[in-house]
Design goal:
Length: 506
């Protein structure tokens, strides 16, 4: 079944999308998607063609995405604020034939060397702009006679998603109609998950898998209402949550951290919210406690990754345990293994995942695929974790972020969690740096509360009071912000590079 069919069968008058002061019903959405399918076909888009969507969170993104996959084409969501050279590289990797661009993306499109992306034949703009030469208007394609959804097999490619936080050449994860639909179905099986009565706060970027298949895919599949938000600002977010009677907030830890440190918030701000979800990276324990104690919000952590479409575990429908990302979804297998691939019980091991939601590999990169996907269908995530006797998963860290000091393993997340218990520390990031005697040493980057006068020596001494000496930072750098990817995930390995070139404010 074609994934685009998730919008079928819902009440015509039910509201599917809210964007700014505009509402789109499910009837309107189906009509627009059908028309845009016809519009894409009129400019030559067909089975297997790549349609890049360089659009922020808006109805135009939703229409373009569903129309493309409904034709049997392959959607390639890209970050509209990516610089031109990055867009250029990604478009060249996937061989995009058509690009759909909004006003935000158009400014960066102007810095793309069209000669470097000869596959691009047509650019479609969501609104008039002088930045895209020879463009076709989005609204003109909406005026074309509609086309029905085409039948596809489960293994047909639906989307190419560039993985976040990776070094080197960009890698596009191949997600099939079957992968994406399987994860939607797996998520729906969790008790208390999103339903048609819910209003979802959709600030997670739709070009990221969390936003694409959890907020959008799962939300539309159950007939919920999605409030599309282009940019997160705590003050305006709060007002929107109240005004729209939002009941579900999926977010990255950075969102919850911002709310937790928003001292002016009324304790009743989240009175209508029944489900608070956190993913993309570990939620600081201190933030979870603040949200529970100040606002009565029990944040339900989950774990996922692009290659798993994305959800692997959830705390929805079970008693949450602070520090845990929950238990595996129905239909998803989890195994913890050592460096030899041997199963572990009770010890820290690499998380392996298997299920119908696991991707088909990295596009055009069989070597990278073989590194993470074995012959038995297990995805080797590179994430380190433990489990308890009840099957709750506790993430420890990324294996590639592991710091080895004098032969001892140091997991950055443990040190970060400790630093966050200091009242002056708002955010923390820990990396390993070369050391002539110990091999590596621990360096910490911290963001402190406004008006704080805490210094490096104080935080090092504080660390020595709470951790073994080899785990403690030998250097603390104070910054005003930390580098994160589009999903809000901390990108540790870019810290030193960013500071060196002056891109990290101190």
């Amino acid at each position: 079944m074609n994934l685009a069919s998730i919008i079928d069968g819902h009440d015509d008058e039910a509201v599917a999308l809210i964007w700014r002061n505009r509402t789109v019903t499910y009837h309107d959405l189906r009509r627009q998607v059908g028309a845009f399918r016809g519009g894409l076909a009129s400019i030559g888009v067909g089975d297997g063609d790549r349609v890049a969507i360089i659009v922020g969170n808006s109805p135009q993104f939703v229409v373009a995405y569903l129309a493309a996959i409904g034709l049997g084409a392959v959607a390639v969501p890209l970050n509209p604020v990516s610089p031109g050279p990055e867009l250029e590289t990604e478009l060249a990797v996937v061989g995009a034939r058509v690009v759909v661009i909004d006003k935000l993306g158009a400014a960066n499109w102007g810095h793309v060397d069209r000669a470097a992306v000869p596959s691009v034949e047509v650019a479609v703009v969501t609104e008039p702009t002088d930045d895209v030469e020879g463009a076709v208007a989005f609204d003109d394609l909406l005026a074309v006679a509609p086309l029905d959804v085409v039948d596809v097999d489960d293994d047909q490619l639906a989307a190419l998603m560039f993985t976040s936080g990776t070094a080197g050449s960009p890698r596009a994860a191949m997600l099939t109609h079957g992968n994406l639909r399987a994860n939607i179905d797996q998520s729906r099986s969790a008790e208390g998950h999103i339903s048609n009565d819910d209003v979802i706060y959709g600030v997670l970027p739709l070009f990221h898998i969390f936003g694409l298949n959890v907020v959008l895919g799962l939300g539309l599949s159950v007939g919920a209402t999605i409030v599309l938000v282009q940019r997160f600002d705590p003050a305006t977010a709060v007002q929107s949550i109240i005004d729209r009677s939002v009941t579900v907030i999926p977010g990255a830890p950075a969102l919850w951290t911002a709310f937790a440190h928003f001292d002016e918030l009324d304790p009743t701000t989240f009175a209508n919210v029944r489900l608070a979800l956190s993913g993309a990276s570990r939620l600081p324990v201190t933030v979870a406690h603040v949200m529970r104690e100040r606002f009565g919000i029990e944040i339900r952590e989950g774990y996922g990754l692009t290659e798993a479409s994305p959800i692997v575990t959830t705390s929805t429908g079970i008693t949450p345990r602070i520090g845990s990302v929950g238990r595996a979804l129905a239909g998803v297998e989890i195994r913890l293994v050592n460096s030899n691939g041997e199963a572990l019980v009770g010890d820290v091991g690499e998380v392996w995942v298997r299920g119908d939601n696991i991707f088909a590999g990295y596009y055009g990169d069989p070597d990278a695929t073989a590194d993470v996907l074995d012959a038995d269908g297990w995805l080797h995530t590179g994430d380190m974790a433990t489990t308890d006797d009840d099957g709750y998963l506790y993430l420890v860290d990324r294996s590639k972020d592991l710091i080895i000091v004098s032969g001892f393993n140091v997991f950055p997340a443990e040190v970060e969690e400790m630093l966050l218990t200091h009242p002056a520390v708002v955010e923390a990031a820990v990396v390993g740096v070369a050391h002539p005697h110990t091999g590596e040493a621990v360096k910490a980057y911290v963001v402190t509360a406004s008006g704080s006068d805490v210094d490096e020596e104080t935080l090092i001494e504080y660390s020595l009071d709470h951790l073994a000496r080899y785990k403690c930072p030998s250097k603390v750098i104070f910054v005003s912000d930390l580098p994160r990817n589009a999903s809000g995930k901390l990108v540790r390995r870019s810290l030193d590079d960013a500071l060196r070139v002056g891109a990290l404010p101190t």
